[in-house]
Design goal:
Layout (H helix, E strand, L loop, with lengths): L2 E5 L2 E3 L5 E8 L8 E6 L6 E6 L16 E6 L4 E6 L8 E11 L2 E8 L3 E5 L2
Parallel strand pairs: 2-10
Antiparallel strand pairs: 1-3, 3-7, 4-5, 4-8, 6-7, 8-9, 8-10
Length: 122
């Protein structure tokens, strides 16, 4: 059974950095595309990025482009979301999910992490 377990997150001041981790357990973990998305109160869910099994990332939305980077370490079965120059509008619950990638687009699929709160505030 595939499981995604998230860690990281928390409270950070504007301009700060955080790294989220998504540890994937299960026999096919290193062969699955993984994505990050976020959900803020009162806002629509927003996809952040996805990464293929070989490390190719999909496009980032303009809201995070140049500040967020997705990466993976298949030896550790872990996908990361590096978040720099954080802004208050980045405050949300972040989820890692298995993903389906088509070109530069991706969508969440059938397994989700438990969610991690990221709060950007002074």
């Amino acid at each position: 059974q595939l499981q995604l377990v998230q860690s990281g997150g928390g409270l950070v001041q504007p301009g700060g950095s955080l790294k989220l981790s998504c540890a994937i357990s299960g026999s096919t973990g290193d062969r699955r595309a993984i994505g990050w998305l976020r959900q803020a109160p009162g806002k629509e869910r927003e996809g952040v990025s996805c990464i293929s099994q070989n490390g190719s990332a999909t496009n980032y939305p303009d809201s995070v482009k140049g500040r967020f980077t997705i990466s993976r370490d298949n030896a550790k079965n872990t996908v990361y979301l590096h978040m720099n120059h954080l802004k208050p509008e980045d405050t949300a619950v972040y989820y890692c999910t298995t993903a389906i990638i088509s070109g530069n687009n991706c969508r969440p699929f059938d397994h989700w992490g438990q969610g991690t709160q990221v709060t950007v505030s002074s």
